[in-house]
Every structure is written in C-alpha cells, then in structure tokens.
Amino acid sequence: MLIPSARTAPPSPFARTPVQMLHTVVLGAPPTAVRIPRTCALPYAQLLHVMVCAALRLPPDAPTASTPLAVGPRLLVPAGSSAGELRARLAMATAGRWEELLHRPFTRRVAAESAQPSSTTRAQRARHFMSVRNMRKAQQALNPPAPRATDYASDVDRLFPAEPQGDSRGCVDGANGPPVGTVRAAAAAALAAEFETAADLEAAVWRSVSRMAPESQPGPSGLRPEHVKLAWALVPAFAASFTELIRRIIIGEFGGDAVAQSTLSLVPKPDGGARPIGVGELIRRVAGRIAMSIAAPPVRAALEAADQYALTQFGTALAYRRVAAAAATSSWVLQLDLRNAYNEVHRAAVLAAAPDSPILGPLISTLYRVPSAMFIPKLQRRLLVTRGVVQGCPLSSALFACALARITTAASAAAPVAQAWYADDGHVYAPSAAVLGTYLAAFQAAAARAGLTLSLGGTKTLLLAPLPLPAEAPVAAPALLRAVPVRDEIKVLGCPVLSAAVVDRAERLRAAWDALATKTVSVLNVFRDVLDPQHTTQLLAAAGAWSRVQYHAMVCADSPMPHEVAARLEQCERDVLAHALGPFGDDLRDAGSTGWLRATLPIGLGGLGLRPVGMIAAVARAHDSALMDAVATGRFTSIDAIQSARKAALLAAYEARRVFVRRLLGGSTPGALLAFRDMEADGASFLGLTASARDGSLLQPALAQVLLALLLGLRVLSDAQRCRTCRRSNDADPLGHHYAMCPTMATPRHDRTRDIIAHFLISRLPRGSVVMESGVDAAGAPVPSTDGTRPVDVGYYSTATQSWFHYDVVFSGVLPGAPHVPLAGHHALPQSLLAAHARSLKVAAQRAHGVTFVAPLAFGAFGGVDGATRRAIAAMQAVGADMSGTPVRPGYLLARLQLAIWRQLAIGVYRRRCADVPRDARAARPYRTSQRAPWSTQRFNLQYSPVVPPTPLTLASPSCAAPPAPPAASPSPRRPQAATRGPRTVGHAGSYIANACESLALMAAAVRAAPDALRRHRRRRCIEEFIHDAERRCGDTLAVSWTSIVDETFARLTPARMQAHALTFADLMDFPLPRDICQPLLADNSPPCDGPATRRGTRMPQSSLRTWIVVMTSNDVPAPLVSWIMRLHSRWVNTQSTSSSRSSRSSTSSPASGRCNPRGSRDSSSGTDHSRVALVARPPQTRRTLVRRLSRDPGAR
Q1: CA-based, 20 to 30 A from 1116: which of 497, 608, 711, 1077?
Q2: CA 984 to chain centre
C-alpha cells in the first residue's frame, strides 16, 4: 500500500487522544533506534516525511503537542525491537492505525543488574563509539563513571526550583510587546537577507544536521540526526519539506511543545553533584543554531562592551590574560561564583535583557515566554519549568550572558571596577578591597532581583590579595567581602593566577605544570584499555597529550612548558602506542627511534599523525604569545596572519623532521627509504578513516598490529623468516617489504582494488554505466573481449561528458637499478616513484599492443599514487557523489583503496609469522574476518554493451502547505553540495520507475518465449517485487513527467535490444499480470470492477501493464495518460520501422544477437538471451537470483 502523499495525509491522527496519554507514552517508551534495518528504512523515511508535511499544514500558533512529529518516532522505531516488530509498527502507521499503535506494548531489553560496568564493558562501549567517530563519548566510556545521584528526585527539585508563591515572572505575557505579525515579518526578512534562495537555507540545514555528534541523545519525540539523514537520502521531497519546517520554526509560525519540550539528563560531575542538561528536540537545535549564526555578530559586540566574552573568539584566553595582568599590578581580584545560575535566573530578566535581534525574537518567545515541558523518564514525570534557560539549548548561553551583563553593568555603576566575565565565571578587580566590597553588595542585590544567588563559603568565590599570606580583607571593607576566603593563588578558567606578593613564583608555576602532566598521564593511560590498535592511534592523534595542554601552553605564554614535562608526556604516549602494537612495541621505547619519529609526522607526510609535545610547544611559543597579545589589545584583524605564520612554522618543523627521517632510512635496510617515500605520496591516508567493522575498515587486533608496524618501519620478521611460497627471496626481510612485490600477493591486491572501485561506482551510478574486465572498441566504448585480453579493469560512463572512461589497475614494488631518492624537497602532493614507474611500464605495453582509450591507475606497492591517478580517483568520487546525491568525504575512495593495499601486505607478513607457530597454538587468522564487505564475496557479471545512462527527469515539488522555492543550479560535479541533493534524488526515483517499466517489458519477451517459466520459477513474485519497488521509490513524488519516463525507457531499450528480444507494442502494453498479483495491487486504486460475479464476489479482471501504469498515475490521470500512450505508440512504430530495415544486415553480426549470458547459453533459434534478460535491468538481488534460476531451466532455453 502506498504511503499517503502530503496532500492526503491526516493532519493529526492523535486529535482525539488525550495529551496525557501521549505524555505517558513518551515517558514510558524506550529510546529510538539509531540504525534502522534496511527493510524498514524507506517506509520509515516516507512516514517521517508525512509527519513533517502534517506539521506544515498546521495553521500558525496551533497546538503542536498532538502532532505526529511530537511522538511518532518513539512509536515507530523503538530501540530493542526486532526488524519484524518495526515493520509491523510501520505498517500500522502507514494504514493510519495510530490509536492502535499507541496501545501496542514495547519490547524491552533486560538490563544487567550491575552498579558499575566492568573494564571489558567499558572497552566495548568505547569501541562502539569509536566506530561511529564519536571520540568524546569513547573517552567517557573508558573512564569509570562518576558516582550516581543517590536521591534523584531531590536533585531534580533542587536544580529546578519553582517560582515563589505569587511571583508570575516565570510566565511572561507578551501582550505589551510589538505585534506578533510584525515580529515574524522582521524575522522572515532577516532570514531572507541571510539566505537568498531556498537552496542556501537547505544547505545550512543540512550542515547543521550533519555536524551533530553521532548517536547524540534525542529529544522527547525520539527524532535523531541519523533519522533525518536517512529520510534526506531516500525521500526526494524531504529536504525541501524539512527545510520549510525549520524556516517556520525560526519565524515563529510553528512552535509549542513539539519544539520547546526537552528531556532531562543529569550528567555527574567529577567533584560531586550533577549538571542538568536539557536534551531538546532536533528541530529546536537546528533552528537555534541557524538563528544564532545570524545573530551572533551584533550580540557578541554588545556583550564585549559589557566585558562578557562568552561569544568571543578566544574568550577564555582573553579573560585569563586580563585577570593575570591585573593580578601582576597588585590589584585585588574577586572571583565570583553563582549557584545553579542557568536554572534559577528569572525568565522575566532573561526576556528583558534579550538581544534586540529580529531573527531571535520569535524563537525566544517560543522557547521561553511560556513554561517549558521537561520530561524526566527516570521519575516518570513531566515537569513544567518556569525559571532559567535550558542548558543544551543553542540560545541558552547568549540569553544568560545578556541577562548577566545587565546585572554586572548595574553593579559596576556603584563602584569603579574592571571586570572580565566568561558566561557565569566572573572576575572583578580594583586597586582597593573597599571598592570591591561596594561592588559585591551592589552585585548581590541586582542578582537577587533576577533570581540569582552568590555561592559564598565555598571554594569558588575567592579573593586574591596583593599581600603576603596570611592576609584578610581590610577592616574598612564591608562584612560581605570579609566573609570571602583570601588566597594568593586562584585558578582562572583552568589556569593558575598568582598574586604579585608571591615570592616562589617559578616553583608555583612548575608545580602547576607537574599537576597538569600528572592529570594528563592518568587520562592517557586509560587508552591502554582500548581493544583495537587502530582506535588507539586515532585517539592519540586526536586527543593525545598536546590536545590536553595546548590551551595552557597558549594562555600561559610567560611561563613556558618545562622540557621535563614535555618529555614525560611524550614518554606516556610512546608507552601507550607500544602497548597497542603488542610484540612490535619494544622498538618505540627510545625517544630518538626512527619508529617514534615517523609516528609523530602528519599522515600526509608518512606518519601516524601523533603530535610531538616538545617540538610543537617550542615552535608555537612565540606565535602563541603574539596571538594572546593581539587578543588582549583588541587587534583581532591580525589574528589570521599570526595563525598563518604559526602554521607555516609548524610545517617547516615537520619538514625538517621528515628530512631527518629520510637520512636515517637512507643508511638502513635497503628499500626502507623507497617505502617511506611511497607513504609520503599520501600512501597512508586511510589512517584518517573511521575504523568500523560495518564497512570492513576495522581490522582484527593481531592484523592491525602488523599493519601499524609496517607503517612505522619496525621489524616484523626475523632474519630466518623468509617467503616460503614464491621461493624467490633468499635475503633476510626484517621489514616485510618482500610481500609488497611477492607474486602471491599481486593478484589478490589487484582484484580487491578493482572491486572496491567498481562497487563504489555501481552503488552510485545508473544501471549499465559501469563495466569490468572488458575490451574497448575504436570509438572508446566497452565491448566483450574476443581474444582473451581484457585491457579494461573498470570503466564508467559520465553523463556530464557523454563519454566512457576506462582504467587499468597497475602496481609496482621495485625500481630498476639503484634509483635516486631525494632526501630533501617538499611538495604539496608528492608523487610516488613506484607509481610513476608502474605507469611508464603500462603505457609502454599499451603502445606495443595498440591499446587506446585506457588510462592506467598506477599505485605503488606501499599505497602511493602519482598525480594522474589521484586526479582520476577524485573524478570517480565526484561523479559518484554527484549522481547519487550523497556527499562523500574528500579522499574517501583513495583511502579505501590504500587500506586494501596495506591490508594485503599485512596479510602476507602475518601468514609468514604464523607459519612457524604450531597449528594448535595459532590464533584465529584475523584476515579471514577483516574487511568483510559485500564486494569481497562476489564477482560482478556486468554488461559489456554500452547503455546510455538516463538524462535527469523533471519532477514536481512536494505538495506541502508552502511549496519550496525551485532548487539552485547544480554546482560543479567535483564539489557536491547538500542543497542539490533533493533534485538529483528525485531524478533517481524516476529512474527506478523506468527500471520497472523496462523490467516488465523484458519479462514480457521472456514469457512470450517460455510461457511456463512464469509460474514454474516464481517469476510472479519477482514482478510483484518490481512493482512494489517502483511504488516505494516513487513515494510522494508520483506527480512525475511520464513523458520523460517513457523517453528514458526508450533510451535504454535501444533498437538493437528491442530487435534481439522481439518486442512489440502489444507485448509491452498488454503483458498480462496474474490476478493474484493484481488483487492486492489494485485493491485501493483500481476503477470499479466489472468482472462476472461469483460466490466470493466480483471477479478481478486480468490486468495488464496498461492498467498498472494507470494505477501508478492514479492521482490525476486520465487525459495526460492517454496522450503519452499515443505518443508511446507512435514512437514505438517509428523505432520498429527503423530497426526492421537493419534486421537483414544485423541478423548474423548484430552485437545484441551475439552476446552470451554469464553461463554461456543462448537461444540459437531466436537470438533471445533468456538467461540474462532480467540482468539488463540491474540491481535487486531478486533479479540475479532469477537469472540463475532461468539459466538452469531447459524450457527457458
């Protein structure tokens, strides 16, 4: 059954359901699934689009608590449910049985009764988060969890206090403000000024969704970023509809509980207590981020005028430098702390101080002018919050900073002080303590009027005295200031600030560095628990020692990092990396070892990407000091120049280290320098990939250890361990380089590289646009090989250039003679010497054999490529991304190819290492289960005949309340943008309709030749799957140009192919569909049935393809359908007359009649290739199964 379109979907299936029941469902339902099963992906994406369109049809200011979008995802895809359960839920929602779905029980997983997860459990959770590239959660999973709250309900009541009795400041009436229409018009104008076209806003929405952390917690509805990305890719109209919904939220036309509600998450603090985080709805976060990106510049300027740096670039560093400078001039410094500030500030104070930005006005009213609903699943409670701002809301930091800026401005009017604030962390300094006391009293009074309370008597509100300790506030100071503890050292935004009276200043700063190093070492040692060496190296590269001391080294430029501290941190990183490498880690213990020097080079320069603390701190010190001086003096225009100079200095330091590594390798084992030179040519870019078992990029630990040791040039074999297969190597091979050129590794490496390229293109390009292992004719088109030579490894057809591109994959592991490898010199993208040698050999061979139109894809045996190969792979990736409408990370395809090359090399070394181990003592061979991917277990039997891919179809826009603007022009194919995803995907959906039409036509020819094949081989089921596939692919885009679909079908059914299959117009249009198939397909959309009456009712007439086309266009059909059928008939007649004149000449030599099926069988009497008739209309698995069944059927032959 088709999903209801946007015009016919019910606006609110929960209109008669009590809102309290929906709240109960939200509180009791499990979280939503992150990954949707493949069989449920498209139905869920279509239902999600229906829910978005239903929200768009609501009038402005309508209640939204009962909209499907507010609760639908929780009901449709609950976590822990099987695929069958999810299909049942989706089917109920598709049929409109939402009320029944509300009462359907959930399947819950039984949680383990353990207070604290074990180290193994934590490591497995870290592996999971690393596999989705969420390093922050992976690090949190490795650490033992903080103690949980003992009294959850009491903590909630304490963190979310209610307004005092009789105080109405929590719910502010907006009647005194400007008219609602004026506010919304101003917001719409501001949004239109920032995004000139709908495509620009759509691209901004896509960027906001794609930048959200993987597997981030959803709001009360359960809608996740992964769900939006799924619908964005599968439903063509979803992008425009979702963008329109975000636009209406920003301008205030859609709001209420569906936007403002949130889920409470209490995050334990390391020092005790909990931080309340309100996880808002995804649509709230997207709209808030876009609105804040527009309003940030003027709001930032207003806050900086009030010494509030919450939105300022380098705001923490700027605040620290000002406080440190004041302390050095013998000023009294008062450090202020507010208790539960974000949750206790009065909303009236927030709204009164809200920035006067047109783009923020409607969204602020939606979120904070009325009480906010916050769901607390652990307490099965729904709380109406009337105070504070929600921590986690994109607007919360700016709104709280504006409210606090008004308080600090009023307090500073009572006393001449200077101050520096970063959010709620405040520091006020003055020459005398009496002035600070006056300010403190004024600040406390102003804060109390806004609902805020000073936290006194603790360890955060402190007074830094310019006097030797023991010291206390002067007697003349107010009693409130005398109650504040006095210190000669305070921690300002994470870094120490010392009083001018401190004598042992150097020792204090050294102790601070030692404490920071101790803390960093304890954090890095947790990385030893990571299960996979690939994840360990990625964590060290992205979250290693330098990332944890970089801020301190930048802001504390007057106290540089001691060399001993840098050496201690690097030693810790070496130990963690050595632990990850297992038996190969002993060679990394020395700080000057070649392996460690290579590990600390960037990935693009042949290293692992680890950052050496000592080198970076020494190089960046002068630039960081200049940067902080520019920030402190307000010279923000010079920041970019200073950062560019800093980056250039670091690159020069890395280049010097790389040249040093080259010199070390030049005098070591022969071939080591050549292998390193190959890695410099981007040979190890796969290290930047997300290592995940889902796509085969995560290797088993034993194999990953071998691979990383090969990358670092460590000894992987003993002198006695030599190749036992090819028998060509008699020399010792401690570095394992022999397996880069071993003949036993050549064929698997070549085939895997070819298959990865083919799989990438086949999954993204139209059917018939990719060939493998074929020949090429004089015109550059692929043809079957007749002489056994197959010069084309993989080729594809580009619709942009209307031409074929053919490639031959070649490798080289050795250079002739004694090659000269330069030790110095730097290029942005260096060329692999091995790849260049492989290309020269292949070009010479092609010239000798007269091969044209085939370009070599040259690789070095260690993953390096030359410039031509890099450009060719980038072009493949751009074409695939442009045709599929799915953006691909730059360099992704090249990284996958290089991983396959290095994996094969590691397999050869691992096999040799296992050969000397008794079989019963060997570990499981990890390479058998590593890199398991769809293309590793099957070979492609593709068509060699060139099939012109379809031209893009012109399809209608989704029918929503407000039609979106037409899409912008398509950008360059090498730079796909999210804004163009929708139109390309719509065309792709139309192509599936043409696929179905062509499949039915070709099956008509097969059934005509073998009438019994339909039922005997269950082809009836295949037809039903094809029809349903076309229905699902169409979704809500049934308003297509059917003339374009007919044109596309004929572009595929070339005259030669129609002649080969003996197709006629009658076969195409009157192909009979069995009644048992037509009954479920036509039950809801067919015209009144006029068949003869029987005991079971009116008999369903036998329908044809003509009836099926009527069903597919049953929205507004009849007249256009008749016109294009007439056009179809005339074109068919013209095509048949044209092809009949050639039949006598091509009956014996036609390429179509001479093609052989994959098994080599062909009907010699009629020239019809029945066994591959369904393969032409690629790709569902059912069609390949059908070909195998037909090839075994004597009647079909």
Answers
A1: 1077
A2: 20
Is the CB of residue 481 less than 8 Å from the CB of residue 436?
yes
- The amino acid occupying position 984 is R
Contacts of 475 (CB under 8 A, 6+ apart): none
Distance CA(400)–CA(403), nearest Å, equals 5
Pull the structure tokens for residue 547.
């990332």
d(CA 1086, CA 1084): 6
For residue 469 the two structure tokens come to 């300790």
DSSP-based three-state secondary structure for 373: strand
Distances (CA, A) of 700 to 703, 925, 927: 6, 9, 7
What are the phi and psi torsion angles at 382 (to 5°)?
A: -115, 120
Contact between residue 958 and residue 240 where contact means Cβ atoms under 8 Å apart: yes
Sheet of strand 262-268, all strands in order from the earlier edge strand to the far edge = 274-280, 262-268, 372-376, 381-385
* Mean predicted lDDT score pLDDT of the chain: 76
Amino acid letter at 240? Answer: A
pLDDT of residue 428: 95
DSSP reduced 3-state for 207 = helix
Radius of gyration of the chain (CA): 35
Q: What is the dihedral sign for C-alpha 195, 200, 202, 204?
A: negative
State yes or no: cis peptide before 1179, omega within 30 of 0: yes
What is each CA distance from 744 to 727, 907, 911, in whole angstroms? 11, 11, 12
* Each residue's pLDDT tens digit, 1073-1088: 444 434 433 333 333 3
The number of beta carbons lying within 10 Å of the beta carbon of residue 605 is 21
Q: Which 8-state DSSP code applies to residue 774?
A: E
The CA angle 934-937-940, to the nearest 5 degrees, is: 80
Q: What angle do CA 778, 779, 780 make, to 5 degrees?
A: 95
* Rounded (10°) angle between helices 1042-1052 and 1118-1146: 10
Phi-psi label, residue 885: left if phi above 0, alpha if psi -120 to 50, beta otherwise: left
For residues 362 and 461, give the distance between their C-alpha atoms in angstroms, rounded to a whole number. 37
User: Residue type at 1168?
Assistant: T
Quickly tell me which residue has 């308080």 as its tokens. 407
331: left (phi over 0), alpha (psi -120 to 50) or beta: beta
Read off the DSSP letter of residue 1088. P
pTM: 0.76
DSSP codes, 110-169: PPP--SS--HHHHHHHHHHHHHTT-HHHHHHHHSPPPPPPS-HHHHHHHHSPPPPTT--T
Question: 961-968: long-range contacts (C-beta < 8 A, 24 or more apart)?
Answer: 961/53, 961/56, 961/57, 961/244, 962/56, 962/244, 964/198, 964/240, 964/241, 964/243, 964/244, 965/197, 965/198, 965/199, 966/198, 967/198, 967/199, 968/197, 968/199, 968/200
Give me the residues paired with residue 32 across strands: 78
- Specify the length of the chain in residues: 1197
DSSP state of 1065: H
Report pLDDT for 815.
Answer: 77
Calpha distance 1105→1113 (Å, rounded):
12
pLDDT digits (tens, 9 = 90+) for 326-382: 999 888 999 998 989 999 999 999 999 999 899 999 999 999 999 999 999 888 999
Torsional sign, CA 345, 346, 352, 354 = positive
Nearest-angstrom CA–CA distance, 680 and 654? 12
Query: Could you report how far apart the first and last alpha carbons of the chain are, in Å?
Result: 36
If you ran DSSP here, which 8-state letter would residue 454 be given?
A: B
Q: Among positive and negative, which fits the CA dihedral 148, 149, 150, 152? A: negative
Name residues whose C-beta falls within 8 Å of residue 585's C-beta, 6 or more positions apart in sequence: 577, 578, 579
Q: Which amino acid is at 12?
A: S
